[in-house]
Input
Amino acid sequence: MDNSPENSALSQNAAANPRVRFAPSPTGFLHVGSARTFIFNWLYARHNAGTMILRLDDTDVERNTDASVASIFDGLRWLNLGWDEEYKQSERLDLHRKVAWSIFEKGLAYRDFTPAHTGDSEKSGAQGTWLFNPGMPELSRAESDRRAAAGEPFALRFRVPRETGDQIRFTDAVYGPQSKAAADIEDFALLRSDGMPTYHLASCADDIDLRISHIIRGQDHLTNTFKHVLIFEAACARPPQFAHLPLLVAPDGTKLSKRRHGPVVSVTTYRDAGFLPEAFINFLCLLGWSPKNDREVMSLAELQEAFSLEGINRANAVVNFKEPATTPEETFDPKAVWLNAEHIRALPVDALSAQLLPIVREAGFQIDSAKMLRITPLIRERIKFLRDVLTAADFFFVDHLQPYDPTELIPQKGDAAMAAKVLQKAKDVLAHTEFKHDPLDQALRAAAQELGVKAGQMFQPIRVAVCGRKNAPPLFETLEVLGRNTTLARIDDAEQKLATPAA
RNA sequence: GGCGCUAUCGUCUAACGGUUAGGACACGGCCCUCUCAAGGCCGGUAUACGGGUUCGAUUCCCGUUAGCGCUACCA
Output
């Protein structure tokens, strides 16, 4: 048996128009690791003018849920990458069974009448290695047929060519040449006793039928691939090119799981926190792949242009979030947060403004798009998440400021009297100054000079009066957007607060 | 237990036998500055360990250790 097709060398299979697939099983929400697998497949397809296929591997009827299907589509829709063809394994069972029985007819599979084991059986673990159920591989065809005809339930198992001493081989595009002794591979199931195909069988049967040229998936399937090679060959199909991806792990090195690590592992958590899908995609691409030229902030088009299987590395990558996350920012890898800020800044103002507006409206503020467009450039460099618009630009949205500490109005190296003096002067000046950046700049600096205070001492009380806090966007632009009426009203309020210190 | 895979700063990574081991994030300092950001400059921290091969190993080979994966009629 030729298990080592030299023809599966990378160069040859990097042929044009590849067909790749992302095949999630709907047993949970869309995991960030799955999202990365989807993205790498998509990038490979687009880079090579190929076809991206979405296939729901839903043969485990016990564990599949509609909620999970919804979550997967939810996440994929947010990623906004799309796909070209879509299939459900549960609608292709006839094909799977046909392939299974054709393998049986060739003598490469046999019926196993041993009752199913449940959960963690004594087969695996420290007890030793299980390869097959005694007596079953040797059953004669006649007896096998007789017992089946009598209605005895059975699973269909692959007959691994263990006696030949063969090595099963394939060349992985990421991990290189792989081989494993057939003697170490157990007789895995093709069909369960209820007639449903197993993952291994359904997956390979569909990959053959859909003419998948490249299987790009998580490294947890690397050792399963030997079984898959066996199936492909038993079905007289040439195995596709495999490319396994290093796994995404938590800071403690363990596999990401919702149970242990919470919502950080769900794609929708990133969406809900205000990530831009392009930033999230950029971040995931940098986990286990590198363009090799120190590029980090990359647009989707740039990623598509730069992507290749050669850039994928082999060691697991840590998603560096804080284990007990206390703030939203700690929930995510700092690099993801930084990339999101970079992508936000890279967005044209009108595009960013359009993304921000629905968030602001949903929070209950009646802001029109024209105003949002004026606010956006003032906060663009100050937000890391889209949702930060709510805290960075809050004072633009409300009619009345949230209560703040009046002592904030007191400038550096100044006192309450200075604050009062500044605010009074500001009102005088602002009453007749044009509300544009340059006139405001000139007028307020001149006012500071007249009062004999530093510019900063002049600006701070005004800033706190109109923004309700010290940290805010630049003052003149802010006043320009706020307008004269609001500005003067807020300075009035501030003067009152100053006059009546906190009770 | 068996089999497989992996191992460069705290984290993501570059260096496909010859580099003062590079970049980024994060962190610290300085500059800029109306505050906060953004930006600029500077700084510290890494080749898991032990053997080979070689004139020369981060790089190739072997072993050790550690981590991960598979070992289901889950995927």
Observations:
- Confidence is low (pLDDT under 50) at residues 1-14 of chain A.
